[in-house]
């Protein structure tokens, strides 16, 4: 297995573990998670909906083992939750103990997509394939 594939699978596993734990804690109403979400202004309904969305994303990551396109969609689905969590932790001046996982999922998402040979981002400035650049 190549270095890039090893990095890809390790990052994917980390992403699934972090989001899986956070999503399940929200769905089962773990007291610490519910209190933490309430302290930043999220009531029970939003906590539950975010948890369900995170768990669905992790299911997409798992299905993506067999269908890589689903995995990439799941990573892109989960990325805004990681960015949002990181932004909230920073705006509330939380310590590293509180924000490291949200920072990690942002980085892991980028690593998973970078290391996937099938995923490409094409920036062509609005030109079609046949147009020459100036």
From TrEMBL:
Keywords for this protein: Membrane, Transmembrane, Transmembrane helix
Subcellular location: Membrane
Gene Ontology CC terms: membrane
TM spans (from-to): 46-66, 73-93
Membrane topology: Multi-pass membrane protein
Predominant subcellular localization, coarse grouping: membrane
The keyword Ribonucleoprotein appears for this protein: no
Highest taxon listed in the record's lineage: Bacteria
InterPro entries reported for this sequence: DoxX
Pfam families named among the record's database cross-references: DoxX_2 (PF13564)
Protein name, UniProt field: DoxX family protein
Organism of origin: Sorangium cellulosum
